[in-house]
Structure formats: C-alpha cells, structure tokens
Amino acid sequence: MTLTPRLLGLAFAAADALIEVDQTGVVRFALGSGAVGGQQTSAWVGQPLSERLSISSAAAVQRLLDALGPGQRSLPLEVLVDCGDGRMRRAVLRAFALPDIAPARSCALAYEGEPFVVEDAPPVVGGAPRDADGFLNHARASLSGGETGALQRLALAFIDVNGLEGVDPATLERVHNRIGATLNAASHDGASVGRLTQDRYALIREADDTRDLAAEMQKAGQAEGVVLSAVARQTPLGQDAASALRAMRFAIEGCLKDGGMDQPELSFADSLQRTLKDANRFRSIVRDREFALFYQPIVNLKTRAVHHFEALARFGQGSGPAPAIRMAEELALIEGFDLAVAEKAVRRLREPGGGLLKIAVNVSGASLASDAYVAALLKMTASAPDDRRRLMVEVTETAALADLAAADRRLSALRNAGIKVCIDDFGAGSASFDYLRGLSVDAVKIDGGLVRDIDVDARTRTMVAHLVELCASLNLETIAEMIETDEVANALRDLGVTHGQGWLFGRAEAEPRTILGGGANPRARRQGMVEDWA
Q: How far is residue 488's CA from residue 491's CA, in Å, rounded to a whole number?
C-alpha cells in the first residue's frame, strides 16, 4: 500500500469529508460523504462552500478561514450543513492552513446526529453559552497565537438583557438557548460566547460587524412570547491577545464581585476600557519610575531600636498601591514593578548616609514564577555584594506560588547570596503554611489581622503563641505588623515575637528615620540605633 491511501485512511478516521477551499471560498477539491447517506462531497467542487452551509455557519466559517495564518490549525467549529432536501445536519469543521497549498485552506467535516428539518432543530446552534470561566478559557485558546491583523479586527461585546425576571423556568431555558444561538452566530468563530450572569452575556465578534445585537435579543424573546429589551456595547481587543485576555478576566471578575453587577451604570465595556487604560498608565509609571518609596520602621520589640525598614510604594499624592498591585498581578505586569522597587531601594542603600540602613522589599509570588526576577536582582547588586546583606525580600501571598519547589530554588539563590527572605502576611491566606513548609526563609511576618486584638482576645493570643513557638523551632524570626498600642506591643513581646511594625513606632515616610521619638505617644518611641539582621 502506498503512502497516499494510508494518509487518506487516517484523515477519514477523524472526519467524514475532506475539503479544500480557495481564497474566494470556492471548493476546489472534496472527498468523502455528504450530509445525507450516499451523497458525495465531490459534487461540491466548483461551488462556494457557503452554499452548503447555513447562513450563520457560512459567515462563521469564512471568518475562521480568513483568520488562519500559515501553518495554523483552527479550533473545532460547530456548523449546520445543508442536506439539499430541506433538512440540515450538524457537523464539526476543522481547518488547517497548509503552507504548500496557500492561499487555499484544508477543511475536515465530521457529522453529528441525523438530518433534521430546521423548524424542528434544537434552538442552540454552535453550543450552549459557556459560563464566565469557560468563556475566558475558550477565548484564551481561540485567540492565542493569532496574527496581529486578525486580532485587531476583533472586539469584545457585552449584552445586558432585561425582562427575564419572573419568566417560568422552562420558558426561561428556551429563551436563553435562543439568545445563545443568536450570539453564537454573531461571534467570530461561532462559539466565542459566554453567559456571565442570569441576564448578561459576552462574545468576541468582528469589530466591524454591524448587526444590532440588542434588536436580535428582542426577537429571541418574541419567539418564546417574552418581551425583552437589551443594551449592547463593545470595545476593541487590540493587537496583543495575551494582554487583552488578561484585561478581560480582570474586568469581568471586577464586575462580578462585591455586587458590582447590581450597578447598571458600570458596564463591562467601560470596565474593560478603564482596565486597559490603567494598564498602559501602570506600564508608563514603571518604565519612567514615576512612583516613590516610603520607608516604615520595623523595631526590636525588646529594645524598641530600629531594626530595618520596609519599602512601600506610593503613587500620586502618597496613595497606597494595593489596587494597582492587584491589577499588575492579574495583567502580568508585576515583575517589572517588583524590580523597579528593588532598584530604588538599592539606590537608597548607596546614597550618602545610608551605610546603616537595611531595607525589605516586597516581591509578588507571580514574580517568582520564573528565574528572571532573581537573576535581575543579583545582577543589580553584583557590583556591591555587601549591599545584599542589607536587603530582605518579603514574599507576598497575593499571587500564590504555583510551583513551590521552583520558587524555593530561586529564593535559595537569594539567600546564598546574602539576601534575607521573609514570608509576608502570614495567616492572611490559605497558602501560608504551604509557604512555611515549602520555602527556605529567614523570617515570618504575622498578618495584622491576627495582631490587632491580641491583648484582649485569648483565642488570638493562643494562636499567635503557637505560631511563634513553631517559628522558633524552625529558627525563624517573627515580625508582627499593624501594632498601634503599647498593650499590643507588650503582649507580642511577652509571647516571644521578636520584631514589630506599625503606627506605634512610626508611619511610612519619604526618608527613613533611624532615631524614633516624639509624636502622639512619646513613651512608645524610644531612641535607638539601627541593629544588625542577626
């Protein structure tokens, strides 16, 4: 047997028909069975493929073929094939842009189910809409690797549907199915649709598609005897698929949580536009170093002498960075920011009069997902290795570490170079003890939520006591944050906590002060010099 029959056998094992379509959409080659038994697809040669598909399927297939770059294979697309006798048949189409036959495209059709009359067809064409996570996962798969030109032609549309309240469950399901079918037909690949909540949908469509989606939602309701109204808005995805997808997730999650969806003035499109704008602004801030570091003292709880400072980023008029940091982690912008913070801190160590300073900088777990952060920090300090002994890295739990073993290897490289490592906000998240078990560190910072009421809450005091005992058995220093009163500071000291941080000892300031004193509670601030790490 020659190679050609074997290859055809393998191809037909995965499909019912093989089709080659030229750049105008005309079938130039076809093998295999048609939509009904006995019919051969060879009869399609010389005809536009669109004539063998439903109107919505033909549009979806053409968009899919146009978007394929050389060597690319498409995701499966559900289509309806015209049987030629008044019936339709479902099929799954896959396409491949074989460079050797460019600009033609190779397609494979696999039929599903039996032919049916269109009026009797189930209302969903192209599959039921996915939930928010399913929609985002599908979008990631369908857009990743796409060509810039194709991505620039796409937009993300959001549709709010009103009038579904009080509809009986059976009718409501049919309405949602019809809405899903309509939106699938309007999406760029026939399947990029998500149902985000009971009455809100999202889809990826052609940016220049002029179909009135709001009007089509009304028609979908009318078909089931339900009066609907809808508002549809969209925003371009741009040329960077990865950034757009991350921004989509960030915007959607922001609207879904904390009752955000109950605010009609807050549309998904507005949220996405704002996210993309904020992301670009954040990139500029990091690139141009348009942020400041403020330094909050951390003291020895026994002597109240300054031990070291935590470097805290401030944007604008001294505002805190928490919202920006969360966005940066979600949009994969955090590594550059973490390095910019470290760069500023190292520069401060080297300024005149900085010889006694020791500074802790924060690093997101997301930045430890690759070797880049550690390599850059070691390179940054290579010209003055002694600086490393005055640095501490606090690993935050805001973006959980996916591979603890790899992160531990990277943190060990920092520790071997002389840089201290601390687990930040211990007790605030579910990964705290995983971090303690899996990471080689020098210190643990106890989250302020466990510290605040320790002088009056016996249960909290017991929990912290056991934590301190555990850390002591592992030869780890302990730092308590958010200390505001002498009573709390003394209770922590009596439990064996070694260091403290909070407004009792000083707020973050533009210049680190190694001598503390004065203020609203002068008894709480004793003068002291900076101590050694040990």
A: 5
